[in-house]
Amino acid sequence: MDREQEPAQNGDDNHGNLLVLAPLALFVGAVVGLLGAIFRLALQRADSLRDTFIAWAHGWAFAGFLFVIAVCAAATAVAAWLVRRYSPHASGSGIPHVELVLNGELPPAPYRLIPVKFIGGLLAIGSGLALGREGPSVQMGASLADLLARLFHCEEEDCRACLAAGAGAGLATAFNAPIAGGIFVLEELVRRFDTRIAIATFGASAGAIAVARLFLGYTPDFHVEELPYPSFGTVPIHLLFGILAGFVGVAYNRTLLGTLESLDKLRRCPVELRAAVVGAAVGTLAWFAPSLVGGGDQITQRTLSGTDTAAAIAVVFLIRFGLGAVSYSALTPGGLFAPMLVLGAQLGFLYGRVCSYWFPAVVPNPTSLAVVGMAAFFTAVVRAPMTGIVLIIEMTSSFTMLLPMLTACFAAMTVPTLLRDAPIYDSLRSRLTP
């Protein structure tokens, strides 16, 4: 008799906990959304100050050139020092660390990670490193959510659900993409459908985006002209592009990991010095081409708008391909999503330009391939196709590109899987475990 009643009692307890978890998730999301919005606004201000500073320094000729290099090197070195001194887990994207915490392989990082990630990310990305805002937003969101859950004396299971929800809220705020934030948690972080985590995650994403949009506005991150629904004749074109994106994604993963492994051999070199060298190199590039450094949203928008020539896009693609790996090797806070979207849009646009030349009746506008390219390249690198598709749809409002994205992502995921190339976050996570 007691055994028959036990499941019902456990079910009642779960429902009772859920009545606490659900409103707490909304509150957690609102707080994470506020923090994420402040971080985004601070990064926008840092980008503006960097451009103003470089323009001013050009008036001082060679002395200004040296000054720009020195400032970028110093800012990057300080970011690396903050990470080493106060919160080693704040290095890099932070998403692999969140995955390890959710899997129970690592304990949550001390909460000083939040200011270290915020300030370090601001210094690193603000100095021009090709890093994304989403990594810091996700890890800060997860850490802040765990802190709030423990302040409310939640049980361990609910703390874990809140941590996952905070991570999703962070991604939702970083890209103004609440649905993608929720899907990212289920597809990439926990890799299964967990009812409690799903409820918490979507509640937190809703709370985060409601608050964040008060500061960031309601429009999508990228403006794309209205694209028509593609014809059936585009299926082979999107399929071939997915194969291309798959091979390029494998090359990107191996370049990034190879750069990290090469710098691992310089263990005797202080991490601050390594970061300063990277910062100096980025500062040099910023002196000659300030529009090529930083997270890359402006580059992506120019590609989607079709304002740059194909030759210019090809050159920028090669530069950003290497710059992303070099920037990540500085071991400062910063993510991979935004730089990947730059490369995906450029790769798709270049492919679309070729197709529009040879098959103008089938592909009249290469912008459609640029949109598809963002989702396909993301899928090739991360191996999270649903997150990539929904993320790009929310960021561009290009709902008509859903089926082309699906076709291209199918191929882009198949190629690296056949080549046995591990998803980038799996590879980065293995570097964190002994």
Kindly describe this structure:
It contains 17 helices and no strands. The protein is mainly alpha-helical and 434 residues long. It is globular and about 65 Å long. The chain starts with a helix and ends with a helix. It folds into two domains: 14-216, Orthogonal Bundle (Clc chloride channel), CATH 1.10.3080; 232-432, Clc chloride channel (Orthogonal Bundle), CATH 1.10.3080.10.
Layout of secondary structure:
Layout: H1 2-57, H2 61-86, H3 95-102, H4 113-126, H5 134-151, H6 156-175, H7 178-189, H8 195-216, H9 235-264, H10 271-288, H11 297-305, H12 310-328, H13 337-358, H14 367-382, H15 385-396, H16 402-418, H17 424-432
Helix pairs in contact: 1-2, 1-4, 1-5, 1-6, 1-8, 2-4, 2-10, 3-17, 4-5, 5-6, 6-7, 6-8, 7-8, 7-15, 9-12, 9-14, 9-16, 11-13, 12-13, 13-14, 14-15, 14-16
Contiguous runs where pLDDT drops below 50 for at least 5 residues: 1-13
Based on Cα principal axes, name the global outline.
globular
Largest sheet: none
CATH homolog superfamily of the largest domain: Clc chloride channel
Summarize the structure.
By secondary structure, the protein is an all-alpha fold. The chain has helices at residues 2-57, 61-86, 95-102, 113-126, 134-151, 156-175, 178-189, 195-216, 235-264, 271-288, 297-305, 310-328, 337-358, 367-382, 385-396, 402-418, 424-432.
